[in-house]
């Protein structure tokens, strides 16, 4: 008689069924986790990432393949640069950590590089925790090369692999992020540095969970080391990056994620995301999970093109941007916005409705014609301007929304 299934094993089996028979799970890396934390309201991404579904293959099966990713050349260049940084037992890397983050400590000399090999991600994570404890107790410079750490995400463990973690003689733990983009005259592309900081913040959170379980934990430092090529050479240089803000934001957003088992329990029986299923079956499965699309998803999610098409077809205001969606309050579709602006729907006491009607009145006044159902000038407070309003009955697609500059509301977004 087989042993009773626990809640954890039942969830793992449920997620395996969602992936499809014999489909291996795709590991959730820190970059994807940072993108997930940036959009905590998207249950679709939370479930697919928690189940280990390969969203790139899923997007191809849906007929909306993703168009981003790291080129093979960039991947090879990054690996070559990382190998150079970690050569000779990580002597250069430890020197950079000492110089940028801990100049008062004794020079590293030859640090320890423990073996972190083990069977499976759970085994590697346990071996990493043991190595961190031993290095903290030893009080010597120690380099952990590609350790494995775990972070609870929506009730499911995510196994993450930082480039390196350095243990200082005083027991402090520092995350090291190695990137192949250049650092010119001591500074790098702010957008890329920001992305690296958000990624490193995820590792910091995972290390804090390990430290909380140890009897004599090390101090997880909130200044990480970003290592990049110097100017146009292949020589490494580094900069200290404070990730306290990114850590706080990521922690708060991850706490807002709906638990994976709750999302899975709400799915229809037999839902499966196996990439070899017919496109119509995959579409039905994907659409059974609520999504929260925003234009920012285009740079962070493989399913962004599919979600954008469906968001536009539904006339969702979120497809125009989160800032505009926030200003429109309870008006969730472009059709609702246009009807409110024309005076055909909406509560006149709603500030968003009042602003839209006032903006439509101002536009009509400028064009020399007053639209029907709109209050005379001065009846409502000034607000967002409706530009390009269509006649009654027009389709929502193609409507253009922009804010009246005189009212100070955010400027324009277009649904095309």
Structure description:
Residues 1-5 and 377-416 have low confidence and may be disordered. It is globular and about 80 Å long. It contains 15 helices and ten strands. The chain has 416 residues and is α+β, with helices and mostly antiparallel strands. Strand 5, helix 8 (190-213) and strand 6 form a beta-alpha-beta unit. It has helices at 7-19, 30-38, 43-51, 55-62, 72-85, 87-101, 120-138, 190-213, 244-256, 260-265, 279-287, 304-313, 322-327, 334-341, 351-367; strands at residues 142-145, 149-153, 156-160, 164-167, 172-178, 219-220, 223-229, 236-242, 400-401, 413-414.
Q: Give the total of beta strands.
A: 10
Shape: globular
Oligomeric assembly? single chain
Low-pLDDT regions: 1-5, 377-416
Termini, distance in Å?
60 Å
Order of helices and strands: HHHHHHHEEEEEHEEEHHHHHHHEE
Keywords:
416 residues; alpha+beta; six-stranded mixed sheet; 15 helices; 10 strands; disordered C terminus
Overview in brief:
With 416 residues, this protein is of the alpha+beta class.
Topology:
Blueprint (H helix, E strand, L loop, with lengths): L6 H13 L10 H9 L4 H9 L3 H8 L9 H14 L1 H15 L18 H19 L3 E4 L3 E5 L2 E5 L3 E4 L4 E7 L11 H24 L5 E2 L2 E7 L6 E7 L1 H13 L3 H6 L13 H9 L16 H10 L8 H6 L6 H8 L9 H17 L32 E2 L11 E2 L2
Parallel strand pairs: 5-6, 5-7
Antiparallel strand pairs: 1-4, 2-3, 4-5, 7-8, 9-10
